[in-house]
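Input sequence (424 aa), recorded before submission:
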Amino acid sequence: MKPEKKLFPYVPTIVGATNATIIGYETLSRQHQYIGSEKNLFPYFQPIVGAASGTIIGYEALARQYDATGRVISAGELFSSRDIANEQLIAWDRIVRRQALEQFSLSNCSGYLTINISAAWIDQLSNFNSLPTLLMLNEFNIDRSRIIIEITESKGDLDKLVEIARVYRRHGLKIAIDDFGAGFSQLERVMAIQPDIIKLDMQLFQNAAKGGIASDVVHLLSRLAKRTGCRIVCEGVETVEDFHFGLSCGAQFMQGYLFSPATADFKDAKHFQKQISSIRKTFLTKTLAKEAHKIEFIANIKGLMELLKTNLTADFCINKLSTAPFKDSGVLRFYLCNNDGDQISSNFNFTDGKWSEDASQLGFNWAWRPYFYQLLSLESVEDIYRIVASERYRDCNTERLCKTLSLRLDDDRVLLIDIAAEWR
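Predicted structure, token format:
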């Protein structure tokens, strides 16, 4: 391991606010004069681990500084200050970036390095043909395929972001979007930039790991990311439960204090492998128990569906169902449709252990719902006994997470049953 260097031999000279490109480097003595009297900044590196391999697959470079007592602290508050001109912040940022790239080039790290670049600061660039980061990569002879540019903050001109992403990609670098899920602007960026990596917003991820609507949002964002071909990184992974939630979302990479804060050195790639292997095993054990409960739940639902089917093909009377074991079964309601998708019966709702009838949706058409037309399409290939299930959704009346099941009742009717979809 190479020791962390707090200073480096040369400092980039920045020219103007509108043409912030490196044209030369100042000497060490000037560096002391430049930042020694202000802020002694340097990089630390936080590992990012692969969920499948268990190895460290890369690092994120993060700015650090010393406080009055000599303790290493985050420089985030400094860089988010509104009292410091952007030109000064950009200069400091490039000082840290250059140190990070130099240390990365001298290390035995075989993974990638993520470099944060503020979207707002990209607006200061006027010449995309001479980007400071590319000049630094040339100087240290770093394989550009091992560098990821992570675009931070929600500000910044979208057209410029798209253009600089094209330039970086043309030179072999990959693009990541930070704090995905923090606002609509991030969705807009995903559509425009089509990043290689998406890092889920830390606060959203940690809230989602506790369940509730935030969990639904993260699963939705994760599915969106996978559909666009992006790899998912979960930030802020601090507990085993956080890691398990990340796995359930399909995240390939994890980053957080569960493994390590940002440190001065690069670790051996297999440093966390045993820990991750153990966490994956507990996830499998937990998931198998959950799946066993789910299978038992579904088997019970299928039995009740057959019971309903038998009753509905005869002279149906809702009172006959009062003695059937629907309590705690997860069945919320059932209704009938014709082959055109028109609802031809009332909703028969089961709440608080009792059945009730609601005719308010008679005549509604559900042919456009996947669980209906998918059932009919299966019948076209003579698979008439299949039960088709919808995606999970939140029921408007009960606020419960639900699914709708459909099956053929007879030649003219389709039975649809809404059930609870909470397996825990």
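Checked by second reader. Residues 199 and 236 are 10 Å apart (CA to CA).
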